[in-house]
Amino acid sequence: DRKIRIAPSLLAADFARLGEEVRAIEAAGADWLHLDIMDGHFVPNISFGPGLVKALRKHCALPFDVHLMIAPVDPYLAAFAEAGADLISLHPEAGPHLHRSLQTIRALGKKAGVVLNPATPVAAVEPVLDLCDLVLVMSVNPGFGGQSFIRSQLAKIAALRAMIDRSGREIALQVDGGVTAETARDCVAAGADVLVAGTAVFGAREYGAAIRALRAGPAG
Ligand code: DX5
Ligand code: ZN
Q: Keyword Metal-binding, does the record have it (predicted)?
């Protein structure tokens, strides 16, 4: 059985109490902390930058999973690596040379991920799979928390699961957007092994119970 990891998205946390929030989700059993970086240009919303990532680093021992939604992305890779990212993911549309960007992340000593928007095909990641530690399937259009899960992305998750298994490499398959206890089951059944959830965790009264419900998987 594949181990399922839960990565709460800080975007849905109380921004006035972020230190407490990251300590709370760590205590509640989260596996990674998902940090959504938005520039108001690549996506129609602005979130936070490397200064905040750095400030949170001393409040949380979880791996920092940094999802960059900024363009151009290359000038900021080093800043997020230095701020304490463990894994840096980017969209193929965010720069002219995806392969080079992934090489840069690896050269900074960090894990690298490629993010596929709902309209971006699986083929976009295939030629660079050897540089990927993670592939992220967006199950909403990026920019905002609290949107509805786009079910057509389940087939993409299944296709990527087959591609990753064929490669024989250890590559995490992550899903982000509209993940709830219900849609989590479908994602895991399709082959995902890292679930990002903003509203489903930070919108819940009890973070631990919310994380356990997401982890329950297809049988749950
Ligand atoms: C959307 C972000 C997501 C978002 C998920 O652009 O990448 O990580 O925070 O939020 P929910 O889980 O509420 O859909
Ligand atoms: Zn995200």
A: yes
CATH number 3.30.450.40 given to 5-215: no
- From 199, 202, 207, 211, the mutation candidate for ligand 1 (largest count of ligand atoms within 8 A of CB) is 199
| Dist. CA 161–CA 10, nearest whole Å | 26
Residue 122 identity (one-letter amino acid): V
The 10 Å CB-count burial string (b at 16+, else e) for 183-207 is bbbbbbebbbbbbbbbbbbbebeeb
Among 186, 182, 132, residue whose Cα is nearest residue 157: 186
Helix (H) or strand (E) holding 68: strand 64-69
The domain spans of the chain are 5-215
Q: What is the pLDDT of residues 39-95, one digit of tens each?
A: 999 999 999 999 999 999 999 999 999 999 999 999 999 999 999 999 999 999 999
